[in-house]
């Protein structure tokens, strides 16, 4: 299929009511097979919600009389491309005309779709079987409808590019013409899915369906909701985590032209106005007395000291191979190191916001959220309504990275409470400072590492004792997310010990692109590099040697070899350039970073990445995810740090929490392995790996080990 | 409150607003033109970039009374049909991911090309470093700017 034939279509969000209102439209609903959840490969993502109910319809295909086809997509579009990729899976089996496909983010409907959430890089892997099955079921129903019309057996008909064709007569009839009849037929229980060799849409670099809307300013994000009569609100929340409003005086704020009211909510005080600017001006004059609570004594230094003290205590066992103490005692050489990372903000480009219209018996909401089902429940609870009385429009999302996913969804609660108080549609707008100082952060983490090499110099033992805040689920003394990326270190070594203990603080934490892995892959891959140097081994050779002993590492070894070869690892580089290599075995990608350091200033010239994520749905979107994750990871490696003083976040905007910019963005060479395995997640696979690749390259250049991030806090001169 | 007259996307526009209200909020909240985005409010991220008399400016830091008598172009006015060479290049290379920053990226890039018909990578770095993209589309943006320069040159020759 030529990409030039694809019509750029707008993706809009429709309410259920609006959708059924389409004249002449027809809904075909498809029951899903019992094996609805696709197999998971690699590290299981954080599971904080039930998988979709099996045996219930999960996705709808809408075929209009004019042959246009609308897919309802149950995954939120935050740039990672599910509106296009999920449509490709449906279209492949449906045998429809891709140029007639439109995608719409589905309304919240647990009965049809289960719990709608877009987290853990699961959009493709959890829909891989269900969506292709739904497409195939629809195709067979359309074929059956045509066969009945022609009074021939279905076996005499075939579906092709939006038509059913009678093989004997070459008569053909379009899907739009057949849809109404097809919708009355029973849903086939068994359908045969295509062989990969027959794919015409899956695996093809089709253009994204949302590009045109995003280059013309027409795409509707959360902040672009404009329901009739909408008011704008900004929140003031206690700058100290855990603090509360003691009292407030809103009289001066209310005197600002355009300000309508000042209302207290469960999370602070909101200034409500006829525009964002007036609300912000009002907030400057709002006087709030805070009950700051015990959090006011907390600082980054006190948190670090607590981590150090806690790590002296025993932790829960996350991994135990052999006997690490004995292994260290008999190692030919050994080394100890402390590694640590700071809190990080998500800093999505679209600050937190939500618009709610509490109408008494019902409510309507416009939300840029990864988890619309949970968001609906938050609003329903705040307004004392049944969830089905809340009509949620999931908008385009200006960056998620975990902040807009499962959790308290504080920004949603804000809007529900303020709309209820104002009896009007209200958009709550967080300023950039609100967003950065009231995040649910990537937790800071601290690890004491010891390791050694055997008489031949091969790494033989690693002991890692980690302390960090919990992501929320502790089992047998271990938060599995808190150790993800180090507990599953892939190298065959006789003695491995990984322990974890909780470092509880007042700072709210949650998922941040590749939770756990985004810190632990740095710890494990940099410390492994230290062991390679200790034993006098080349970092690539040692990885190859210790991966090859276990056949389950075959795919990891493959990407390591590809990345090394493509980057020219070990070959001559331009003067002053150095390579570092790292592997993220859990997400099957390897990266080689090429850097230079001039007068202490780091420059990342190029990152080469080889990635195996199973079957490729759309190589263009996949490349975007690889490149984007590397740029995101680089910000964490080189710049990102949230610090606390007196219980308050010090940073507030991009002037003191900077991120990767154009001139710092390296050339990225991404290679995606051609695979027939089931697809796995792609959005969070490649950001952890770039941190150790760059840090290991810094060692190659300077013989300095960067054991604390961000890199900028250490002199490289 | 003041009555401010300027030209917006080629048409005469009058707005009644506080003179110090930033152009960003006039566009988004008063005029309902939401293509221009709020990202930081302190001219650090570039999401709010528009053209003032052809130059890229940060509308979050431009008080509306400074716009009196000027020509403002927003993403909605860059072309009627996504036909501007920068938009065409962005479509051809599928640049956007989440898309939130892309209005600003496109407005900065189109102002760059208006002044420099064949920017080097260093030129692109210098100008585009003011526009943050958290999705990390920088490599695509760089390629798309080079492509847009080619498209523009072809268009000029045609």
Can I get a quick summary?
Chain A has 717 residues and is α+β, with helices and mostly antiparallel strands.
The CATH class of the largest domain in chain A, by name, is: Alpha Beta
CATH hierarchy: architecture of the largest domain in chain A: 2-Layer Sandwich
Oligomeric nature of the chains: heterodimer
* Number of E-type strands of chain B: 5
The CATH class of the largest domain in chain B is Alpha Beta
- Total helices of chain A: the number is 18
Strand share of the residues of chain A? 15-25%
User: Strands of the biggest beta sheet of chain A: in what spatial order?
Assistant: 11-12-9-19-16-17-18
Number of helices of chain B: 6
Largest interface: A-B, 63 and 58 residues
Instruction: Determine the CATH superfamily of the largest domain in chain B.
Output: Beta-grasp domain
Helix content of chain B: 25-40%
The ordered string of helix (H) and strand (E) elements of chain B is EEHEEEHHHHH
**Physical arrangement of strands within the biggest beta sheet of chain B:** 2-1-5-3-4
Radius of gyration of chain A: 27 Å
Question: What would the principal axes of the Cα set say about the shape of chain A?
Answer: globular
What's the story with the biggest beta sheet of chain A?
Answer: 7 strands, mixed
Q: Structural class of chain B, please?
A: alpha+beta
Report mean pLDDT of chain A, rounded to a whole number.
Answer: 90
What does this structure look like?
The complex is a heterodimer of chains A (717) and B (158). Chain A has three domains: 3-215, Aldehyde oxidase/xanthine dehydrogenase, molybdopterin binding domain (Aldehyde Oxidoreductase, domain 4); 222-293 and 352-429, Aldehyde oxidase/xanthine dehydrogenase, molybdopterin binding domain (Aldehyde Oxidoreductase, domain 4, 2-Layer Sandwich); 300-343 and 441-713, Aldehyde oxidase/xanthine dehydrogenase, molybdopterin binding domain (Aldehyde Oxidoreductase, domain 4, 2-Layer Sandwich), CATH 3.30.365. Chain A contains 18 helices and 28 strands. The longest helix of chain A is centred in the first third of the chain and has 23 residues, at 128-150. In chain A, the strands form seven sheets. Chain A has a seven-stranded mixed sheet with strand order 11-12-9-19-16-17-18, sandwiched between helices. Chain A has 717 residues and is an alpha+beta fold. In chain A, 28% of the residues lie in helices and 23% in strands. In chain A, a hairpin with a 2-residue loop joins strand 11 (259-265) and strand 12. Chain B has a five-stranded mixed sheet with strand order 2-1-5-3-4, with helices on both faces. Chain B has helices at residues 23-30, 75-78, 85-92, 102-115, 121-128, 138-157; strands at 2-8, 11-17, 49-52, 55-58, 71-73. In chain B, 59% of the residues are buried. Chain B is α+β, with helices and mostly antiparallel strands and 158 residues long. Classes of the chains: A alpha+beta (717), B alpha+beta (158). At the A-B interface, helix 6 and helix 17 of A face helix 1, helix 3, helix 4, helix 5 and helix 6 of B.
């Amino acid at each position: 299929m030529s990409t030039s034939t694809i019509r750029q279509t707008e993706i809009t969000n429709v309410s259920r009511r609006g959708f059924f209102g389409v004249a002449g439209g027809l809904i075909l609903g498809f029951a899903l097979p019992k094996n609805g959840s696709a197999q998971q490969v690699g590290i299981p993502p954080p599971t904080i919600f039930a998988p979709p109910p099996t045996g219930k319809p999960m996705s709808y295909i809408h075929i209009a009389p004019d042959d246009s086809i609308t897919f309802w997509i149950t995954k939120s579009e935050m740039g990672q491309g599910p509106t296009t990729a999920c449509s490709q899976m449906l279209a492949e089996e449906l045998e429809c005309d891709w140029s007639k496909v439109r995608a719409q983010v589905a309304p919240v409907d647990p009965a049809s779709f289960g719990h709608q959430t877009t987290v853990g890089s699961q959009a493709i892997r959890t829909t891989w079987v269900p969506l292709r099955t739904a497409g195939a079921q629809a195709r067979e129903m359309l074929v059956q409808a045509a066969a009945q019309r022609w009074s021939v057996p279905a076996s005499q008909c075939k579906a092709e590019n939006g038509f059913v064709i009678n093989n004997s007569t070459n008569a053909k009839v379009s899907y739009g013409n057949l849809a109404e009849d097809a919708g009355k037929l029973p849903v086939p229980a068994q359908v045969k899915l295509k062989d990969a060799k027959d794919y015409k849409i899956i695996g093809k670099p089709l253009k994204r369906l949302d590009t045109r809307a995003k280059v013309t300013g027409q795409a509707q994000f959360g902040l672009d909701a404009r329901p009739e009569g909408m008011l704008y609100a900004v929140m003031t929340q206690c700058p100290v985590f855990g603090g509360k409003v003691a009292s407030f005086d809103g009289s001066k704020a209310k005197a600002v032209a355009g300000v309508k009211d000042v209302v207290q909510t469960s999370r602070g005080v909101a200034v409500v106005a006829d525009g964002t600017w007036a609300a912000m001006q009002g907030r400057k004059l709002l006087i709030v007395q805070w009950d700051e609570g015990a959090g006011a004594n907390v600082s980054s230094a006190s948190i670090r000291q607590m981590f150090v003290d806690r790590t002296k205590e025993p932790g829960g066992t996350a991994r135990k191979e052999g006997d690490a103490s004995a292994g260290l005692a008999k190692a030919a050489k050994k080394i100890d190191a402390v590694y640590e990372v700071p809190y990080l903000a998500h800093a999505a480009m679209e600050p937190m916001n939500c618009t709610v219209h509490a109408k008494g018996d019902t409510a309507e909401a416009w939300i840029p959220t990864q988890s619309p089902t949970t968001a609906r429940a938050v609003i329903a609870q705040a307004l004392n309504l049944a969830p089905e009385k809340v009509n949620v429009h999931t908008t385009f999302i200006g960056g998620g990275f975990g902040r807009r996913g499962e959790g308290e969804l504080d920004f949603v609660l804000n809007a529900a409470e303020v709309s209820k108080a104002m009896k009007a549609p209200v958009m709550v707008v967080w300023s950039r400072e609100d967003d950065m100082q009231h995040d649910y952060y990537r937790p800071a983490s601290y690890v004491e590492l010891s390791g050694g090499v055997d008489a031949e110099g091969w790494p033989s033992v690693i002991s890692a004792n980690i302390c960090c805040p919990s992501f929320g689920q502790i089992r047998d003394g271990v938060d599995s997310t808190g150790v993800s990326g180090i507990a599953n270190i892939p190298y065959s070594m006789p003695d491995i010990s990984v322990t974890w203990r909780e470092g509880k603080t007042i700072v709210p934490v949650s998922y941040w692109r590749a939770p756990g892995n985004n810190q632990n892959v740095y710890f494990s891959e940099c410390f492994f590099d230290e062991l390679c140097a200790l034993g006098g081994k080349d970092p690539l050779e040692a990885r190859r040697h210790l991966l090859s002993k276990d056949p389950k590492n075959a795919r990891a070894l493959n990407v390591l070899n590809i990345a090394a070869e493509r980057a020219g690892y070990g070959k001559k580089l331009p003067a002053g350039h150095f390579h570092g290599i790292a592997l993220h075995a859990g997400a099957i990608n390897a990266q080689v970073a090429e850097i230079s350091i001039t007068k202490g200033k780091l420059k990342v010239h190029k990152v080469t990445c080889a990635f195996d994520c199973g079957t490729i749905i759309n190589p263009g979107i996949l490349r975007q995810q690889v490149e984007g994750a590397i740029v995101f990871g680089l910000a964490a490696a080189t710049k990102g740090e949230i610090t606390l003083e007196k219980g308050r976040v010090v940073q507030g905007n991009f002037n003191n929490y900077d991120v990767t910019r154009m001139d710092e963005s390296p050339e990225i060479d991404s290679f995606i392995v051609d695979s027939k395995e089931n697809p796995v997640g792609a959005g969070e696979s490649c950001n952890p790996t770039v941190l150790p690749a760059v840090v290991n390259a810094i060692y190659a250049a300077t013989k300095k080990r960067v054991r604390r991030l961000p890199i900028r806090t250490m002199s490289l001169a | 409150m003041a009555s401010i007259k300027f030209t917006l996307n080629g048409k005469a526009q009058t707005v009644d607003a506080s003179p110090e209200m930033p152009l960003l909020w006039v566009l988004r909240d008063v005029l309902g033109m939401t293509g221009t985005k709020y990202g930081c409010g302190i001219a650090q991220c570039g999401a709010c970039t528009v053209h003032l008399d052809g130059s890229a400016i940060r509308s979050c830091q431009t008080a509306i009374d400074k716009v009196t008598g000027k020509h403002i172009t927003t993403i909605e006015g860059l072309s009627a049909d996504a036909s501007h060479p920068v938009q065409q290049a962005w479509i051809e290379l599928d640049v956007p991911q989440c898309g939130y920053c892309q209005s600003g990226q496109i407005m900065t890039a189109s102002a760059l090309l208006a002044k420099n018909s064949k920017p080097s990578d260093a030129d692109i770095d210098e100008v585009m470093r003011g526009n943050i993209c958290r999705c990390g589309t920088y490599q695509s943006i760089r390629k798309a700017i080079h492509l847009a320069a080619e498209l523009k040159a072809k268009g000029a020759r045609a």
